[in-house]
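PROTEIN FOLDING TASK:
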Amino acid sequence: MLASLKVRFLLVTTLLLALFAVSAGWILRQSFDTALRDRAQEQLKLHVYALLSVSEYRNGKLVVPQLLAEPRFNQLQSGLIAQITSAGKPVWRSQSYIGMGKVADPYAVPGQWYFDEIEVQQQRYFRAVFTVLWEHRKKETPFSFMVWESDAPYQAQIKGFETALWQWLGGLICVSVLLVFLMLYLGFRPFNRLADAVRAVEQGERPAIEGNYPLEVRPVVHNFNRLLAHERNQRERYQNSLGDLAHSLKTPLAVIRGLDLEDHEKSAPLLQQQIGRMDDIISYQLRRAMTAAPALQTQGTALDGVVPKLAAALQKVYADKKPDITWQWPEQARIPLEEGDAFELIGNLLDNACKHGNGQVRLTASIDDRHCRLVIENDGEDIPAAERSRILQRGVRRDEQSPGQGIGLAVVADIVAAYGGTLAIDTSTLGGARFDIQLPR
């Protein structure tokens, strides 16, 4: 099971900090050790220079005081020892040399320093050797001045330095891990808020994710809200399509209901026509429910194939009013709508005109290079200006006493908006309402 991102980041950061601390500690320790060795060599040089300063060559012999100013040379097991040799033979030794045993005499080029580390009686020492040529009566005699000092004090300093170093580095790691944890906590707070917001949306407490989020999280919030809006629109489209389907089937069902089924010769063709129309309506509504937008590259629909069929059906539905449906448009005129959308739009407007008119309905169409215009009028009662936008909303009916669900004009408005057109309602010269639609070609 994969750990959370916080745990992963914390583990990786801790590991990196530990590696950094070990590397830094090793480098600092080596640097400190090198500095101590350099310091030890400089200290040994000073002791050699002090020994040279008190040495004299008299009567063919090198004379050195037995007691030196540095008290450790005069104490047993002090850790600081001096010896002067010539041709490999000891000439002088400090009091602290007693009990040391024989120490090898390295060869050193006269005038040059020689440094090394030696082990005597299981104790390590830093050693410095400097060889000088003492001239007497035109004869040069080499003398090697050797001083070595125990490394115990230096090892104690290194140990103390290491203890302090690792304590500080360990504390630094702990503080750094705490800061990283705090940084992760603050950095992941927007994700926690996002998770709470998603949970609230899932439980229906919020319609969308709201709030101010960092730049890195905003694309996720934006895309999630778009997905929610898309799903909401899809759900509304399904619901609306069910209502539209029921509304669209009313006219064919009304025509079938009005047929004289006993007269098979007359009723059979009309019945077959209306059944085919119902099948087309169901296919259209299913396709419309599944499609977010209409196909804008459609070749259009011929008005000659739509309006006469709708007029014939409506004249049977409103046979009591005997509607006079007239139309006028250029020859072979086509409107920029899919056939199903054309039947829905014109059918709903003609149905509305017949329902609220007194019998006279007029449809005119005009087409130019940029637009297609449809105007449908009736001789009924005009629609007040204050209600013209309200009746285009789904479920709103102007006359609550008349049958219907308030869907037809909402479907018309949806189709016009989907094709980028405009819909205007005003007063007709016939006395009733006038619906003016403009669609881009």
The mean pLDDT is 83. The radius of gyration is 53 Å. Residues 361 and 393 are 23 Å apart (CA to CA).
